[in-house]
Amino acid sequence: MKYPALQLFSQILPGLDEFDAIIDVRSPSEFALDHLPGAINYPVLDDAEREQVGTLYKQVNSFEAKKVGAALVSKNIGRHIEEHLSGHPREWKPLVYCWRGGNRSGSMAHVLARIGWPAVQLDGGYKAYRARVSADLAEAPTLPFRVVCGTTGSGKSRLLEVLDAAGAQVLDLEKLAAHRGSVLGHLPDEPQPSQKLFESRIWDALRRFNPSQPVFVESESKKVGNLRVPDALMDTMRQSPCIALSLSRDDRVRLLMEDYHHFAANPEVLNAQLDHLVKLHGREKIDAWHALANSGRIEELVALLLADHYDPAYLRSIDRNFVQYGDALPLELPGIDPEHFEAAAQHLKQLAA
């Protein structure tokens, strides 16, 4: 094969995980919005440089823009080689892509190939990859999902974590979305990804699963924080067999106190989240909950939230949204110690074997 090789995403996909590096040469802001799974960002034009060249295209002409752009691209490629790539052996095989046209990725791939590395350039760039992701997620996944259901605080997310560590197949949508899926689910110091990046993470997880083995997933709603679960995936989950996880009310409060400990030190943040519930519960009740938060009575507040908000909402929706919930496999946790989750995970793995 002659390098740099220009290949379609359909040609690349079967061996996507075999590349030694996937290099996204777009600007940092483009990369942050979404990128191929596992990609690293070595921009040949940063955001300011890209704006500078684009302005020249519009206000002067393409020739002047290309002269300035070529100098910047050459400088940046040289810097990336010196700082990041010079230590790689001859056999190192990178995949390089940009937005669509191929000018930026073509420049990087050409230099890497001239050095002697077997560089491959993605024909159609990120846009071709994104089209494949959208098409795949529009189709119902042919995977045997097992939906872990349970009221808020029953340990669904912890059980998924233990199942994953034990080698089971797990689709943890809350982890992929950086959100715990409830009105208080925002994770401190971890913003949610963009919708496109969330979908990329889902697509990457789905493509790796063995369709002959069950995939455990939580009974999410259509939105996880600000992000929407793809419709085809959501529909498939809602038609799948269920596991009814249960835990005592006292242990649920304990678990939520552990998971939401950051709110105890930041009642202002907690109260701001509670304000989203005014339309459901009225100003008087929310003000009473504010008072509990401000006085540090978080455990009492959590118990009230379970009784007055989370549990009624769950009971209204679970049977309607997950059609096999009536035949769900019951799974009671005797507590929230690690050994309790380990035993539950092993039990589910044995049933699936």
Q: Would you mind describing this structure in some detail?
A:
The protein has 353 residues and is α/β, with parallel strands linked by helices. The protein folds into two domains: 5-136, 3-Layer(aba) Sandwich (Oxidized Rhodanese, domain 1), CATH 3.40.250.10; 141-352, Rossmann fold, CATH 3.40.50. It is built from 17 helices and twelve strands. It has helices at 9-12, 28-33, 47-59, 62-85, 103-115, 125-137, 156-165, 173-177, 195-208, 231-238, 249-259, 261-264, 267-274, 278-281, 283-294, 298-321, 338-352; strands spanning 5-7, 21-24, 40-41, 94-97, 120-122, 145-149, 169-171, 215-218, 223-224, 227-228, 242-246, 329-332. The strands form three sheets. The chain has a five-stranded parallel β-sheet with strand order 1-5-4-2-3. β2 (21-24), α2 and β3 form a beta-alpha-beta unit.
Write a brief structural summary.
With 353 residues, the protein is of the alpha/beta class. The protein is built from 17 helices and twelve strands. The chain has two domains: 5-136, Rhodanese-like domain (Oxidized Rhodanese, domain 1, 3-Layer(aba) Sandwich); 141-352, Rossmann fold.
